[in-house]
Amino acid sequence: MRMTKRSEIRTLCSAPMGDDVWLTIQGVAQELNLSIPAVWKGIAAGRLPKPAYPAPRAPRILRSELRAAVDLTRAMPREAMAARRAAKAAGPAQSGGVAKGPR
């Protein structure tokens, strides 16, 4: 099995496919103004698309998929806020939290 050279990976992954571009995780972090660990947390939580691996240890995400995921999550804050308010109004016993007394 032939190993792919770094220069080939850069060429493969930076070449636009139609209107789309493959971004590295660092590129995704710059695009979203996040840290690299925050990008991985977003991927793990399902808020960001899972990366493709054109070569081992070379995760890439399509810019169009990234933009679609960001647009989708922009609609979610109101729903998430409503769910948090409902859980808070229900009280700690129903929301699964532990009631804390005064210290």
Tell me what you see in this structure.
The structure is a single chain. With 103 residues, this protein is mainly α. The protein has one domain: Multidrug-efflux Transporter Regulator, Chain: A, Domain 2, CATH 1.10.1660. It has helices spanning 6-14, 25-32, 36-45, 63-74, 76-90, 92-95; strands spanning 22-23, 61-62. The chain has a two-stranded antiparallel sheet with strand order 1-2. The radius of gyration is 20 Å and the shape is elongated.
Strand tally, please?
2
What structural class should be given to the helix and strand makeup?
mainly alpha
Helix and strand sequence: HEHHEHHH
- Roughly what percent helix? 55-70%
Report the C-alpha radius of gyration, rounded.
Answer: 20 Å
Which spans have pLDDT < 50 for at least 5 consecutive residues?
none
N-end to C-end Cα span: 63 Å
Coarse shape: elongated
How much strand content do the residues show? Answer: under 5%
For the record, the CATH architecture stands as: Orthogonal Bundle
Q: What is the mean pLDDT?
A: 79
Number of domains: 1
